[in-house]
Amino acid sequence: MAALHGAVFPEDPWDEANFAALFQQNGVSGLLDPRGGFVLFWLVADEASVITLGVVPKRQGIGRALLAAGLQQMREAGAVMIYLEVAATNMAARKLYEGFGFQQTGLRKKYYTDGDDAVTMSLGL
64 partner at 20 to 30 Å CA-CA among 13, 75, 93, 102? Predict the structure, then answer.
């Protein structure tokens, strides 16, 4: 998963130790698509967060399938609300999330290491 994350996010890759530490946290789960994609969630009580979602190659429906399956998984686990942050300049991802009904809830200035802002979004499940 670390190699795939590095391919998707070369400016801020996570290594195996990052993933090992993350998966030791209670409530963290994820889905992996063998075609080249992953999504990780964190569920606390009845609220979930999308920790990260990435695909390579893009625009093959992998991200949409992962997000749909993950949202269903979180719903079945008892989540009633889900949150995420996405780079303000990542219009493809924002469009994907909006297509699922996510609404923008805020903006975090210079959130990412490259100085990009983060758009915060949420969705009632």
Answer: 13
